[in-house]
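Lab notebook: predicted structure, single chain.

Context: the supervisor wants predicted structures on file for every construct in the current expression panel, including those that have not yet been purified. This is the next one on the list. No modifications to the sequence; it matches the entry in the shared construct table.
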Amino acid sequence: MWPEEPNWEGWRTIDEKTIDREVPVKTEEQIVQFIESELLEGVAPGIDPLASGMLDSLAIEVLIGWLEDEFEISLGHKDVVAENFASVVALSAVVDAKRLEASGQPTRTSK
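Prediction complete. Output recorded below exactly as produced.
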């Protein structure tokens, strides 16, 4: 017997970047895919290119431009700091917070 169809009620996506059944594509996955396809060649699976320092300053600038275009956000000087680019997980958290902020949704840092 097949499992019951999942209840997708309450799921929401921030944008159209979705896969089957409206499950949101994780921001982290999108960032890794961009880095691997556009900025680096031959990255071993499971390696965090940001945490391992694989990107130079020009690649970081390209990444910032792509993030702003892809996710329709603006990264200011306060966002472009070392701790936000220390890992893909840290960067995706910043991007997701900016996306929520841009959509008018309250964030944990909103007052």
